[in-house]
Write a structure and sequence with these properties.
The chain is α/β, with parallel strands linked by helices and about 1550 residues long. It contains 64 helices and 51 strands. Strands 10-11-9-12-13-8-14 form a seven-stranded parallel beta sheet, sandwiched between helices. Strands 15-20-19-16-18-17 form a six-stranded parallel beta sheet, sandwiched between helices. A six-stranded parallel beta sheet has the order 32-31-33-34-30-35, sandwiched between helices. The longest helix is centred in the middle third of the chain and has 26 residues. It starts with a strand and ends with a helix. About 0% of the residues have low confidence.
């Protein structure tokens, strides 16, 4: 009698908890007692069950010696054909009930009966083969004993003596004739691998190419793979099977219908590659474009699928290409290819996964990123993977034209897969690339030799295409280029591909051609998929003659009749050029032409594009710092690429931000700094609380938590879990209860699975599980929560139903004015991001203007009710979880469950909440929203659960936090980018050579691909050129930028190593020039992207000058460089618009906010900081610099200044701060001592004087580099001196009063004076002319001022104030703003005006004498300088520095006027805001606005009157005292003129008034009378 048994074993104790048994006589036992079980079973002589040999029998010591029958091992043998047996799934019995051993015993009984029936269906020969192979094994012996099988063959007596092959062995080639190789070594296989051989024969004999060996068999009998290879993949070259099933030509005809393979110059490359793959060799194949590469791996894959039921995995970075290939095979009726990639919806993805799992797919296309998926890994572990095909294999090599760090993981993945499969023999690899140099080939071969011990066989086709004719046409202007293109297209009148380098250009050019009557369409990688397909199909069908495309077009596109390829912009490498040009003339019988329209500037564009797209060392360092910050308190973190980007300070405007982050992470992983886990959420749907599917359905039907759709979804999840027996122990990385695996196989999104799991937990269908974790810290407090909530409440109350645009700075200022002093832009952005994410608001960012448009999605009442509900839940969660914090630690990890939180919250709120029927009962979704809010607002860091939808990567930090990512780690990427630079130079060399000598150019291309790279360079580039091709700039551009710099200036430009560069720049040493050229070098040659570069200056005028010069040097790129004053940058950091009240302390506040991490990381993440006039830094400025240095560990600082010219000590400047940078580790001091401004005599004079200043940074004396002598003359007085006006001339004074006197004196002599006059306490923005201009611009709502609006407002302003002496100031203002701003943003204009001083727009010229204080003349230079100042006595070092500045302004002539006149015949006094009674102007606004600067006024007893005797202004006590000081000395007022008309707003007033300031001239009474 036979008994069928099953046990339920407790995973913790490893003891049997429950026994079930069913006897042949119908008796049934279900017990917890081992004694009862033993008694029940002991009466039977045979025991059967499913997987009892390796599982149940370990825990049950059976008495006696019963026959053991295990249905598990029999199943693949007897049901090898799809759809397999309905009771079996992999190694498990299919059940719809959990933990019922009696039920499982009955299923085992039914299965055995079916297995016996299947055995009886086998042919006698097959029965005999299986018996002879298996009767002696533990797994099968019991079965043969139980069914009392009697062998039909025995070895003959003579055979036993001679040890010949037994007779039954001959049955195998006979039974499986035409299905296996007749000459396989069956003898050895029978001896060594009998079970494996049996399983292989079962699948082979199933006569279904899609039937596969179950995954559990591959796991437990890994040699099955090798046995299958020996039977079906190892050709003897003689038998019928090998002649057909392993013959490349036979396969070609069978699968593709072709009679012959393609050849290249008579070489059968395709055939060689296919045959090599059929033999199981690993290979690297270099196929030219259009060479039929796809067939070369598809055919062996399809043959292997049919012969060995094996899976071929194709790894390619091009998702659209994968889809095309799958579709193309489907069109041929070949359905066994699928792709799993990010473009599929969940259902398509689940279908593809199912096809691979059940064997109906034998060719799987995936992207490298998919190797991180546990689902993919599980899938591949369950199949016999016969080969990995790696497309675009040049991505392995830093010497290739498209190196990808994520490719370096492929070898690791294959090795780990082999180890997990326990495969001794390596899985074969095929690598494909269209073009490859020798070094790339050796890199790929070395990689696989080192990683997997594989030797790749290299097959290379000659890349030369005989039916293509190449030409290069020079076209220097855009018009020339276009006209050439048009005439080429019209002249050839055939299908044409035009390649351009930029996405935007595809549309522009296609539209231009269309307007000229040519049927042209655009194509680029950033287009919508539907438009791409539509345009591609139109071109393929001939509806469009021309496709204008980026290099994205053509991958896998096989149009035979393309007769013309035109490169409108030359490719960035010969590899790409050959590949793209090769899309012409695919039909070998036709002649095609390939043209390049070449301008030398094309290469510059490629270099700029490379700089913008490359992943620089500083960006990887920023990502490394971000990961260190995120893992400061723990070694592992779960986060999304965007989380890391934000932490690294990367702004949302960066292109392709997720790809860049992933590339940086791959680089850090390759360097061993981090380990990236699979994208695995640690959420498991375990602890099933129902016994059967019927019970689950009943509960789902009556539950109020589920709607119809979620009921169906939950039922599918439960069914999958029950069939996978997802008990509590199933919580590993391989567990089928993991939510991402469930999502993949059920065709649902992760969010849907998680939502349903939580609903089932809430309803008791699944046991609740504390699989959520919160990192709770000291800052997780109700006080901090309330701060954020109040700010959010303020936002929601101020957002309406209509879209409203507001700048973040304005929003922040308004919030602070409303008493929310803790508001900052970082918090506002974060709150608006959350509100948008959860559908409270609709939000559109305008990053270029720092503004945002927002509106509510629902009405105010609904929104606020939702806010209140979340507020209460958040407060409860913070109280509950922070109570579990360990106060001795900075952070505590708290485990919790969402369902438990919800139930506890409902219980605590029961009394207060639910007496009102209108209030909604909180749900899991509400808890999730609150948890997400707490995560986004950084009050706690939550992991697990639904958060996985937002966090897709697991990163573990391996390296110590002090470890630096440096040049050694960056070496591979650095080599790749250097190679890309060389490739651009080489393609330019080819273009120039093609113009001169056609055959030489073809030889050049051939040598490039076949010669050793160094030999190639030495052969084609002379010695001086070799250095040039390592620079990412053309020689012509390099000479234009840096050709005229001095040796010392070039040293600073070329210093790419020093972390801190301090240039002590003497007067006239070209400081501005060095900085501008250094900025150009950083942008063009040092991998610094514009958003990573910050330059700080001390005046708007300096910032403008740098911007103007940089535009001249590098063109458009300069517009994106951040050149700011310390003040404007600080206002930006604190999130406010500039205001005078706060200007004094703003730099200090900004530094504080950086130190407290209250500033948006994107504002302060910089890789280079450049400081102009570094000697002028004060304590606050230096604190800001240090805060930035601490924030950016690897940031380089370039500080240029002259400590000898530190003349602003009165406002806190101190050159010690600049000097302290020199002592930093990695700092280099450069002394710039060549003076290109001043002649020898002036420099010698200044040198003698400056030596008296103590504690100087420079040790080398300044040298004149002008080659001119010049002169220094001492004058006692200016009174009788004839002022030179040849060239630019300046008179420099100590005080503003002296300036006015000198200017007046000059005018009396009939000389024109330009006075750098200050505005008496007012700012440039107060000027009436400026206010009038702003008024003419109109609307404040529009962020961008159109060119027309700007020009019209400018015209009106200049017309209205045509007679004003401020006319030239306004003209200079307009010119400067227009030059430095490509787009006129209103916010930029307001900041520009706020930051400017009137002196910034007062320009010296050769027609007038410039009169100014020494301080206002700093940074200027003049042919002739008159310095009105006594020589300092040395007691005041600040006085000495100011005098030194005055000395060094002169180029040719310096006059030292040591005795200013004691008395003037007439003097001029400039009235300032303290000299007039401001309240007097109230009510006189229109009268004042009618005046113009320079208009005459009358002075009368302390009042200023217009010529019409209208009172304009009243002098204050201060103003009267100023005049009285002179009238008491015998002077009288002789003339008064308007100096400025200004706007003034009293403090705490909304009303603005017009103010008039004047210059008053007084003369000696006798002079007057005279």
């Amino acid at each position: 009698m036979i008994v069928f048994i099953d046990t339920e074993v407790n995973p913790q104790t490893k003891k049997v908890a429950d026994y079930g048994a069913v006897r042949e006589d119908g008796a049934v036992l279900h017990t917890h007692s081992k004694a009862d079980f033993d008694a029940f079973v002991s009466r039977c002589d045979a025991v059967c069950g499913h997987n009892i040999i390796r599982h149940d029998l370990k825990y049950t010591a059976l008495r006696g010696n019963p026959t053991i029958v295990d249905t598990l091992f029999l199943s693949p043998l007897l049901f090898p054909k799809r759809p397999y047996h309905h009771l079996v799934k992999d190694d498990k019995l299919q059940v719809d009930e959990l933990n019922n051993p009696v039920n499982d015993s009955m299923k085992a009984r039914d299965l055995l009966n079916d297995e016996i029936a299947a055995w009886n269906e086998l042919t006698p020969d097959r029965q005999e083969i299986y018996y002879q192979l298996l009767y002696h094994t533990q797994e099968f012996g019991g079965f043969f004993k139980f069914i009392r099988y009697v062998s039909t063959t025995q070895k003959s007596f003579l055979g036993r003596i001679l040890n010949t092959q037994p007779d039954w062995l001959k049955l195998i080639p006979k039974e499986f004739d035409g299905k296996v190789c007749s000459h396989a070594d069956f003898d050895t296989l029978v001896r060594q691998y009998p079970i494996e051989l049996a399983y292989c024969l079962a699948v082979i004999g199933a006569d279904d190419i899609f039937s596969i060996t179950p995954a559990w068999v591959l796991r437990n009998y890994p040699q099955v793979v090798n046995v299958m290879n020996l039977l079906c993949s190892t050709s003897c070259g003689e038998c019928k099977y090998c002649h057909r099933r392993l013959d490349a030509h036979y396969g070609l005809k069978e699968f593709f219908g072709y009679d012959e393979f393609r050849t290249f110059d008579g070489v059968p490359m395709q055939q060689q590659a296919v045959e090599s793959a059929i033999r199981g060799e690993s290979l690297l194949t270099i196929f030219p474009t259009g060479g039929g590469k796809s067939l070369t791996f598809q055919l062996p894959a399809l043959m292997a699928g049919r012969n060995t039921h094996g899976l071929t995995v194709v790894i390619s970075p091009l998702q659209s290409l994968m889809k095309d290939q799958v579709d193309n095979l489907a069109a041929r009726g070949i359905s066994e290819a699928v792709t799993i990639n990010g473009l599929l919806d969940p259902i398509e993805r689940a279908t593809a996964i199912q096809q691979v799992a059940d064997g109906t797919a034998n060719l799987l296309y995936i992207a490298p990123e998919m190797l991180r998926s546990k689902t993919i890994e599980k899938l591949l572990l369950g199949r016999n993977v016969v080969r990995f095909v790696i497309d675009e294999a040049h991505c392995f090599s830093a010497w290739g034209h498209d190196f990808r760090v994520d490719y370096l993981y492929i070898g690791d993945f294959i090795r780990q897969l082999q180890e997990k499969k326990q495969q001794e023999r390596s899985i074969a690899v095929s690598c494909f690339t269209a073009t490859a140099k020798q070094k790339v080939i050796s890199d790929i071969c070395d990689y696989f030799r080192v990683m997997l011990g594989l030797e790749l066989k290299v097959l290379a086709a000659n890349a030369e295409r005989k039916n293509l004719r190449y030409s290069v046409l020079h076209a220097d202007t855009a018009d020339e280029k276009y006209n050439l293109l048009r005439s080429l297209i019209m002249g050839h009148d055939c299908p044409t591909i035009v390649y351009v380098s930029r996405t935007r250009r595809t549309r522009q050019l296609a539209e231009h051609l269309t307007s000229d009557g040519i049927r042209a369409l655009p194509f680029n990688g950033k287009m919508e998929a539907a438009e791409k397909v539509k345009n591609q199909n139109a071109f393929m069908s001939g509806e469009a003659q021309v496709i204008v495309a980026t290099s994205a077009f053509g991958m896998g596109v096989d149009k035979k009749d393309v007769g013309l390829v035109v490169h409108y912009n030359i490719s960035d490498s010969l590899e790409n050029y050959v590949q793209e040009a090769g899309r012409a003339g695919r039909d070998p019988q036709m002649q095609a032409e390939c043209f390049v329209l070449y301008a030398d500037s094309d290469l510059d564009k490629h270099f700029i594009l490379l700089n913008q797209t490359k992943l620089s060392i500083s960006e990887i360092q920023q990502v490394w710092k971000a990961i260190k910050d995120l893992t400061a308190k723990r070694d592992k973190v779960s986060c999304s690429p965007l989380d890391i980007a934000r932490q690294a300070g990367w702004g949302d405007e960066i292109d392709d931000i997720e790809t860049r982050v992933k590339a940086a992470i791959a680089a850090l992983e390759d360097a061993g700094f981090i380990q990236r886990g699979s994208n695995t959420p640690h959420v498991f749907a375990t602890g099933i609380a129902v016994k059967t599917m019927d019970e689950a359905r009943r509960k789902l039907t009556v539950s109020p938590l589920f709607d119809e759709q979620s009921r169906e979804e939950a039922a599918r999840i439960i069914k999958s879990l029950i069939s996978a027996r997802a008990t509590a122990e199933g919580r590993g990385a391989e567990a089928e209860s993991r939510i991402d695996y469930l999502a993949d196989i059920l065709g649902m999104s992760k969010a849907t699975v998680i939502r349903n799991i939580n609903l089932m937990r809430q309803d008791g269908l699944l046991a609740d599980s504390r699989d959520m974790q919160a990192w709770v810290s000291k800052s997780t407090t109700l006080r901090n929560l309330d701060i954020i909530l109040k700010l959010e409440q303020y936002l929601l109350q101020h957002i309406g139903g209509q879209s409203h645009r507001v700048s973040y700075k304005e929003l922040n200022e308004e919030a602070q004015k409303a008493g929310l002093t803790y508001s900052n832009v970082k918090r506002l952005r974060m709150l608006l991001h959350f509100l948008s994410l959860k559908g409270y608001i609709h939000k559109q960012e305008h990053s270029s203007t720092g503004s945002v448009s927002v509106r509510l999605q629902a009405d105010k009442e609904v929104t606020m009710a939702r806010f209140e509900r979340r507020t209460n839940i958040c407060r409860y969660i913070v109280e509950t979880l922070s109570a579990k914090r360990d106060n001795s630690k900075e952070m505590t990890l708290v485990n919790f469950s969402e369902v438990e939180l919800l139930q506890q919250y409902i219980a605590t709120r029961q009394a207060s909440m639910f007496d009102n029927q209108e209030k909604e009962k909180p749900t899991i979704a509400d808890i999730e929203e609150a948890l997400l809010y707490l995560t986004k607002t950084e009050l706690m860091k939550i992991e697990g659960g639904f958060i996985v939808i937002y966090n897709t990567m697991q990163i573990g930090r391996l390296a110590d936090r002090r470890t630096r990512y440096g040049k050694e780690q960056y070496r591979l990427l650095d080599e790749f980018y250097k190679q890309r630079i060389r490739q651009i130079h080489i393609v330019g060399e080819y273009a120039n050579l093609m113009v001169r000598d056609y055959n030489a150019a073809l030889q050049f291309v051939n040598d490039y691909f076949t010669m050793d790279f160094r030999r190639f360079i030495n052969h084609y580039f002379k010695e001086e050129r070799r250095a040039q091709i390592d620079q990412n700039i053309t020689p012509a551009k390099y000479n234009q930028l840096f050709g005229e710099l001095s040796r010392r200036q070039l040293e600073i430009i070329d210093d790419k190593q020093s972390k801190y560069i301090v240039a002590a720049a003497g007067p006239g040493s070209g400081k501005t020039r060095v900085l501008v050229h250094k900025l150009a070098s950083l942008l063009l040659m040092e991998d610094v992207k514009h958003e990573q570069l910050l330059m700080l200056t001390f005046s708007r005028a300096a910032a403008t000058e740098f911007k103007k010069r940089l535009i001249d040097l590098v063109g458009n790129a300069a517009h994106f460089v951040d050149i700011r004053t310390f003040h404007s940058y600080s206002f930006d950091l604190i999130g406010k618009q500039g205001s005078l009240d706060e200007a004094k302390d703003v730099v200090n506040r900004a530094a504080e906010m950086i130190e407290r991490s209250e500033v948006e990381p994107s504002k302060i993440a910089k890789s280079v900081l450049v400081i102009d006039e570094a000697q002028d830094m004060g304590a606050n400025d230096f604190r800001l610099v240090q805060a930035l240095m601490r924030q950016n560990e690897e940031m380089r600082v370039i500080a240029v200044g002259d400590d000898d010219q530190n003349i602003y000590a009165f406002r806190g400047s101190d050159s010690r701060y600049m000097q302290s940078l020199v002592s930093e580790e990695g700092a280099k001091l450069y002394e710039m001592t060549d003076n290109y401004r001043s002649a020898h005599a002036i420099v010698n004079c200044a040198n003698r004087f400056v030596q008296r200043i103590p504690g100087r940074l420079k040790h080398t004396a300044i040298q004149s580099a002008t080659g001119e002598d010049g002169q220094v003359i001492t004058l006692k007085s200016l009174i009788d001196t004839e002022i030179s006006t040849q060239g630019s001339t300046a008179i420099l004074t100590r005080t503003n009063e002296d300036t006015m006197q000198v200017a007046y004196e000059l005018e009396r002599r009939g000389l024109r004076a330009t006075v750098a006059q200050s505005m008496g306490g007012f700012r440039f923005g107060n000027l009436a002319e400026v206010r009038y201009f702003l008024k003419q611009l109109g609307s404040k709502e529009e962020a961008v001022i159109s060119t027309d609006r700007w020009q019209e407002a400018k015209r009106r302003t200049l017309e209205t104030y045509a007679t004003s002496t401020c006319q030239s100031i306004m003209q200079h203002f307009f010119a400067d703003f227009e030059t430095t701003h490509r787009t006129y943003y209103l916010s930029d204009l307001r900041e520009y005006i706020f930051e400017s001083n009137i002196e910034d727009f007062i320009a010296a010229d050769n027609r007038s004498v410039f009169v100014s204080t020494i301080h206002k003349a700093k940074g200027r230079e003049f042919n002739t300088v008159y310095l009105l100042s006594p020589v300092p006595d040395g007691r005041d070092v600040n006085d000495m520095r100011a005098y030194y500045v005055g000395l060094t302004r002169a180029k040719q002539n310096l006059y030292l006027v040591t005795n200013p006149p004691a008395e003037y015949s007439a003097i001029s006094i400039a009235l300032n805001m303290h000299d007039v009674i401001l309240d007097f102007f109230k009510g006189r606004k229109q009268v004042v606005l009618n005046l113009r600067s320079g208009d005459p006024l009358l002075y009368q007893d302390g009042y200023l009157l217009s010529e019409q005797d209208v009172y304009i202004a009243a002098l204050s006590a201060s103003g009267k005292d100023k005049l009285k000081a002179w009238t008491d000395r015998g002077y009288a007022v002789t003339e008064t003129r308007v100096s400025f008309t200004l706007a003034w707003r009293p403090k705490d007033s909304q009303t603005e008034y017009a103010v008039c300031l004047a210059n008053v001239v007084l003369a000696k009474e006798e002079e007057n009378n005279h």
